[in-house]
Amino acid sequence: CSSVSSSTVELARTCVGTPYYLSPEICENRPYNNKTDIWSLGCVLYELCTLRHPFEGSNLKQLVLRICRGRYSPVSQRYSSELHLLLHLLFKVSPRDRPSANSLLKRPLLQQQISRHLDTQLLEEEFSHTVLHRHTPAAPKATNNTGVCVCERECVCVCV
Fold first, then answer.
1. Which GO terms describe its molecular function (predicted)?
2. E strands, the chain, in order
3. pTM of structure
4. Higher pLDDT, 123 or 42
């Protein structure tokens, strides 16, 4: 976290929303990819289990330092070992060590929940293909009053 102090001020000026879900790579102003969303998913899952954030600080700099270290208090032992392992994987400090969205969906814990809540036909439709979002969105075709655009490739992007 050597670049934390300079990037912390920049983050405070450029980010919109809560900093509690930021990944270490964003805190350190490093390049990031979809694995940053995996980290944020871990933050949300942790908060659902504990009703508190996994990383907290009395100020933004302290919060960023704690995120970069990746140490958090474990969730209650009443949760399954699979959930504990899942959080451990989601909170890997190095993005390349975090699982992909597709590999998460194949985990037994998630497979059980998915099959409980989706009927067989919908399950097959939703998971018969691999989700890839590596393309660059095409130029927006139209903008509505909310600032949301519809692109040619059927993605939704926010126009700023």
1. ATP binding; protein serine/threonine kinase activity
2. 140-143, 148-151, 156-158
3. 0.69
4. 42
At residue 136, the pLDDT reads 46
Question: Domain locations in the chain?
Answer: 4-98, 134-160
Class of domain 4-98: mainly alpha
Report which DSSP code applies to 42. H
**Rounded CA gap, 139 and 154, in Å?**
11
Cβ neighbours, 10 Å, residue 53: 19
Give the torsion sign (CA, 84, 89, 94, 97): positive
Contacts of residue 142, Cβ cutoff 8 Å, sequence gap at least 6 = 149, 150
Model confidence over 55-64: pLDDT tens digits?
Answer: 999 999 999 9
Helix, strand, coil percentages (3-state) for the chain, rounded to 5, are 50, 5, 45
User: For 68-127, how does the pLDDT look when each residue is reduced to its tens digit (9 = 90+)?
Assistant: 999 999 999 999 999 999 999 999 999 999 999 999 999 999 999 888 888 888 877 777
